[in-house]
Amino acid sequence: MTTDTLSREVSRHAGWSIFMGILTAAVGAAMIIYPLATGTASTVFFGAALLVAAAAQLVFAFTSETAGRFFLKLLLGLLYGVAGLCLIALPGMGVVTLTAVLGAMLIAEGVVETILGFSAPAGAGRGWFFVSGLFSLLLGVLIIAQWPVSSVWAIGTMVGAGVLFNGITRIVTSSWVRSEVRQLQGSSAAA
Questions:
Q1: What does DSSP assign to residue 186?
Q2: Spatial distance between the Cα atoms of 167 and 25, rounded to a whole number of angstroms
Q3: DSSP symbol at 90
Q4: At what angle do helices 91-119 and 67-89 cross, to 10 degrees?
Q5: How far apart are CA 191 and CA 179, in angstroms?
């Protein structure tokens, strides 16, 4: 394969990646516009993932070497299964519950990141720990303070924002790759 052929191929793949990035960003924007639907779908998906984990734990239980480990894995598999079934059967209640858990996790994350900021050496990105900790703490408090109403927007908006930024990152990265390939093609043509 020649350099020119390779450059065209990389540029073509970058073009498809840009298209997929635009599509991903559009889906992320739609998820943000419809946060309750996104939160509900995410909850059902999480429930399905818990069912898969439950099945795996039940299979792993039979590979245990002791009765104690067998029963612990069996219990864990049953807990995963019950939680997964509840999230799938009652996604509205699942969204409300997961929103409370999310708020509590963000508060805990904010506290831990702030502690890490104090323990990090000066100049080692210490300030970013404080900034991240502050935003996590504020978001967690906002979610908990408005709970259960925050269930309407919290999970769906955060999942949508993640998908949106994933799409934007893909667009920017692929555009940069395409630009670099074209610059290399231009410099090799001039030589």
A1: H
A2: 4
A3: -
A4: 120
A5: 18
pLDDT tens for each residue of 58-74: 999 999 899 999 999 99
Residue with tokens 């559009």: 26
62, exposed or middle or buried, with CB in 10 Å at 0-12, 13-18, 19+?
exposed
54 within 8 A of 84, measured Cβ to Cβ: yes
CB 153 within 8 A of CB 36: yes
Output the six-digit token pair for 85: 């079934």
- Structural domain boundaries in the chain: 3-185
**pLDDT digits 0-9 by tens, 103-147:** 999 999 999 999 988 888 877 677 888 898 899 999 999 999 999
Asked whether the bond before 148 is cis by omega within 30 degrees of 0, the reply is yes
Q: Take residue 38 and report the two structure tokens written for it.
A: 């996104």
Whether the CB-CB separation of 76 and 58 falls below 8 Å is answered with: no
* Burial group, residue 147, by CB count within 10 angstroms (0-12, 13-18, 19+): middle
DSSP state at residue 100 = H
